[in-house]
Each structure stands twice: as C-alpha cells, then as structure tokens.
Amino acid sequence: NAKAQGKNTFQFYYAELDKGTSRKMELDNALRKAIELNQLFLCYQPKIHLETGEVLGVEALLRWDHPSLGLIYPDEFISLAEETGLIVPIGQWVIQRALEQSKDWEEKGLGKINVAVNISVRQMQDDSFVNTVEQIVEDVGMEPSRLELEITESIMQDPERSVAILHKLKALNIMLAIDDFGTGYSSLSKLRYLPIDHIKIDKSFVDDIPDFTERGSIVKAIIEMGKSLNFTIIAEGIEKEEQIAFLVENSCIIGQGYHLSVPLTAEQIELFLKKQM
Ligand code: C2E
Ligand code: MG
Ligand code: MG
Ligand code: MG
C-alpha cells in the first residue's frame, strides 16, 4: 500500500544519502594521496581549425586512475576538491604537468603545442594564484603565451577581484578563455572590458545547431557579438558534421568535440599530431 511504499522510499533515501556521504569521504581521503601516488593523469582534447583541420592546441582534462574504483572523471571529484580546497594543489599539479607535456612534445619534434588548463574559481581565490602560475611557467621554461587558462563566467560574482587577477595574468602574457559561455549569468558586454582572448560557446548551445529557427540563431548571435568585441570564438562539444558547416558559415572557425577528436592520452596525441605532419 501507499503508506508502506512511502516509508520504503524514505528509508531508501537515507540509505542512499549515507552511501553518498561515505563514498564522498572515501574519495576525499583517497584524493589527498592521489598526487603522490601518481594516480592523476591528463588527457588532451585537440582544438581544431574547422576549415583546415589543423591542431591549434589542446585542452588538458584531468583523470583519476583509482586503484579499486577504476577511472574517475572530473565531474565526480572536482566539486569535492573545490569544497575541501584540495583543488589548489591539484590545480598546480595540472598546470605543471600540462606544460611539461607540451615541452616534451616539442622536444620530440611535434611543434609548439598550446595547452589550455581548466581553472576553478576556488583556485583564483587563493592569494598566491598569480605568483604560483608565474613560478610554474618559469620553472618549466615555457613561453607564457603557450599556456591558456579556461575560467567560467562565475568569476564575475566577484568582478573587482577577478578583473585585477585577469589583468595580472594577461600582463604575464598568459592566454585567457571564458569556458562554457552562455551557462552563467554574465553577458558578453560585461566581459568586453576583461583581457579575454577566447570565448568558448557551451556545448548546450552547440547542440542546437543546425536549427535555423530561434535556437540556432542564439549561437549565431553569440558568434557575431563575440566577434564584434574582438574575442575569438571556440565551439565546444561538436558531435556532428552539419554543426561544422553551420559554424564555419557563421565565421566560428575553431572547435572541439567528439566528432573532431575525443580527449586522448599524451601518447595518442603524439600519433594524432604525427598523422598531420
Ligand atoms: P569543460 O572544461 O567544459 O570540458 C569539456 C568536457 O566535455 C570534457 O569532459 C570533455 O571530455 C567533454 N566533451 C568534449 N567534447 C565533447 C562532445 O563532443 N560531446 C560530449 N558529450 N562531451 C564532450 P570531462 O573531461 O569529463 O571534464 C568535465 C569538466 O571538468 C570540464 O568541463 C571542466 O570544467 C572540469 N575539469 C576537467 N579537468 C579539470 C582540471 O584539471 N581542473 C579543473 N578545475 N576542472 C577540470
Ligand atoms: Mg574547459
Ligand atoms: Mg567547456
Ligand atoms: Mg563544460
């Protein structure tokens, strides 16, 4: 009967909640040791010129190879790491690893590959963020312009502080991108005064392409307005050929997505680049 069912649902809910909490604590403990135990690694998704197919750079995406739970994706541990602050040392590791990898590719004769790294707001709240980034770039011995930081619109929740940090990073010659554009609350006109190089249109908008009615025209409007403000527009999450045609027709010529390439391991990127040479 309904009453009994309700009770079962209730108990089920708590059992699930409990499971969720203990999995979280388990993950938190394990994540604390993950760096030194060498369990974290990066995959790289190419950024492609949509007309020529040229690789314009790669985006580093974090993966965790957990000994018993297997491969864990960022959606399951980044927010946890943000909550606990662990994202700060992890984020430093990511920047360093990505730059070292780019250097390694260069030494192997694969050219100067630009690397983009995702940055959480929590990392930027750390007072030493800019200095740390500068130090890592210097230690690895890399032109700062080969590093790009992908940040989300949520930085605009603290505009004054964010603007100051972005200007400091730009003064170091580091490239800056707004990731997942369109999902936050900022407008392009608010971003116009920021020293941003690239705007990445969120996959949810790219999914609407090609739809020549209202939804498709939102993408068109973002591209047009972004261009008029001198941002380079990158489309993320391209899964179909016809999306490419629409983007190129509307002058968005850089993209990422499974249709172009899924995120690859460092070794796979090597092969990917060699095939292009
Ligand atoms: P993001 O920066 O927007 O990265 C794009 C995500 O979409 C990646 O998922 C990528 O694998 C996936 N993707 C790319 N192309 C396609 C496509 O065509 N179709 C579909 N369905 N998905 C596609 P991933 O690697 O699981 O990363 C998820 C998010 O986790 C990232 O979103 C980023 O916000 C965050 N993240 C990843 N690595 C790091 C990191 O090192 N530090 C921080 N702070 N966040 C990270
Ligand atoms: Mg990103
Ligand atoms: Mg994105
Ligand atoms: Mg995203």
UniProtKB/TrEMBL annotation:
| Covered residues, full protein | 426 to 702 of 702
Which domain of life does the protein's organism represent? Answer: Bacteria
The protein's name in its UniProt record: EAL domain-containing protein
Where does the EAL domain lie? 24-277
